[in-house]
Amino acid sequence: LVSRENHAERSVVRVGGVPIGPGTMTLIAGPCAVETHEQTLEAALMARSAGASLLRGGAFKPRTSPYAFQGLGEAGLRILADVRAETGLPIVTEVVDARDVELVAEYADMLQIGTRNTQNFALLQAVGEAGRPVMIKRGMSGTIEEWLMSAEYVAQRGNLDIVLCERGIRTFEKATRNTLDISAVPVAQRLSHLPVIVDPSHSGGHRDLVLPLTRAAVAIGADGVIIDVHPSPETALCDGPQALVREDLAELAELVRVLPPVV
Ligand code: PEP
Predict the structure, then answer these.
(1) What is the CA(14)–ligand 1 centre distance, in A?
(2) Tell me, what's the pLDDT at 4?
(3) Contact 55, 229 (CB under 8 A)
(4) Beta pairing partners, 110
(5) Domains in the chain, ordered, with CATH?
(6) Is there a contact between 230 and 39 (Cβ–Cβ < 8 Å)?
(7) Which residues are near ligand 1 (CB < 6 Å)?
(8) Does the predicted TM-score (pTM) go above 0.90?
(9) What is the pLDDT of residues 207-225, one digit of tens each?
(10) Cα gap 51→10, rounded to integer Å
């Protein structure tokens, strides 16, 4: 269902009316985690000023340590909904448990499947039935074929509104958080009709790398990027070191404006 074989044309997925697909460079930006209403609103305004048309923000956070901030849960979803009403930006947010899919889908415009859950097949099937577009991160040790099979699980449940997101893979290299496999973008676009975006924040893991990796994503023809921004990363409860700050926004805006928006 997701393969290019029976789809000559690459697909456009619309999220709250915002297109992601061939000819777009859709910017999705916002805080890694929803912390407070004020922080989320400020991050959303930063995102919008850089040209973002969708707001990202995690209310359910999958963390390596069980002692790390796990997200605000439904309270975070309510904050996202309030900020959507205030800014007009549709919401992209992660769901980590099949039991929460209905709840998250009540608030989200696009459901995010994180790298750690890319082969959580029960979760993939549940989001396939949720009636919302789905973004699937590539597994941190997943092959492109495995990633496409994850999308197939969603598609098989009747939902073809799927966006693939390359977010870096685990290699021997420690200088970056993950190794951005930029070649995965054209490969996935050749094998599948689904839009393919890049997450420069979770691949680089450091602010200084986010704009260069965004440039690479634009140059290689990704259909969009998803980027962490934070009004005060030094106090962030999650992934502060990779969040862009206000001073970075003008350059980000310049980069994502390279392609004319598709209406
Ligand atoms: C995220 O985007 O918030 C996230 C946790 O990303 P990943 O699943 O790619 O680590």
Answers:
(1) 21
(2) 94
(3) no
(4) 92
(5) 13-256 (3.20.20.70)
(6) yes
(7) 32, 58, 62, 94, 114-115, 137, 167, 199, 202
(8) yes
(9) 999 999 999 999 999 999 9
(10) 24
For atom 3 of ligand 1, which residue has the closest CA?
32
Q: Which atom of ligand 1 is closest in space to residue 226's alpha carbon?
A: 2
Tokens of 254: 């310049």
pLDDT class of 6 with cuts at 50, 70, 90: confident
Q: Which residue has the tokens 């392609």?
A: 259
Q: List the structure tokens of 203.
A: 């691949």
> Sign (positive/negative) of CA torsion 66, 60, 115, 223?
negative
- In this prediction, the answer to ipTM > 0.90 reads yes
Residue bearing the CA closest to ligand 1, atom 6: 114
Q: Crossing angle of helices 37-49/74-87, nearest 10°?
A: 40
